[in-house]
């Protein structure tokens, strides 16, 4: 998991801004003919020490360090406490410098206090704006992480959506073959076993090679042919050079299933499905011969589309005319099995 970035203010910012404030506070002294070098140094020292204290005091009063909830309003009791604390610290610094350096002439204490309140307000507001920005970024990161987790969970559910009706129909077909003592019953059982073995092996994978997907499809089509006989036909015209590309497991199976679900499949009107490549897309095409009263919910195609969006942020394309229905799925060339 991504490590949460801790809120912090660079020491360069704290010391750099404190030195800058100390220099700015001393500028008027440079133009005062009665000011001495000692006055300038003492004035700068008080401002520097006060600024550093105010920085660290306000930083450690933030909710990050006190476990208190953030106030919606920038101006609250914490600001009042900070101002009062600043006034007290400024009084202590002024008295300490007077006693330590035995200064006979200094600016009026009120001037130091006003300067301290101004510095306090500037630091407080700047720091809280930084902290609010930090919290906004953390919320965005957490939201993105939560969305990623939810998408992952949804994707796992999508991968489990192998139609249970297919198993039911396959077992019914097998029963019929056994009843009439069809010699191909044993082959049917082997293909059914292969298909569900592939299902178990591939269910935890995000992507498999197109070659493996076509092997799964071969078993699936064999089972359907046993059920529909010559009323169903799948033609593979995919360029073998594309076999090393990748595809989400059972994408082709779901698309074939979608064709059967919505179209008439019979000896009188055979359903012919063609697979081929077109640019960077793999195309599944069938002639439209809709069942009476068939209503499309779009769940199957939406399933596949969500899987591609989750994995490569690309959508499938649907090309429908009066006579043909095409679904184009993006080819994935750069991938790693995991």
Automatic annotation (TrEMBL):
Query: What organism is this sequence from?
Result: Flavobacterium pectinovorum
> What's any one GO cellular component for it?
membrane
Stretches assigned to the Signal transduction histidine kinase internal region domain: 153-231
List the Pfam families hit by this protein, alphabetically: His_kinase
Per UniProt, what is one GO molecular function of this protein? phosphorelay sensor kinase activity
Q: Could you list the residue ranges that cross the membrane?
A: 12-28, 40-58, 79-98, 110-131
> Sorted alphabetically, which InterPro entries does this protein's record hold?
Bact_2-comp_sensor_kinase (IPR050640), Sig_transdc_His_kin_internal (IPR010559)
Identify the domain of life. Answer: Bacteria
Q: What is this protein called?
A: Histidine kinase
Question: Which PANTHER family would you find in this protein's record?
Answer: SENSOR HISTIDINE KINASE YPDA
Q: Which UniProt keywords apply?
A: Kinase, Membrane, Transferase, Transmembrane, Transmembrane helix
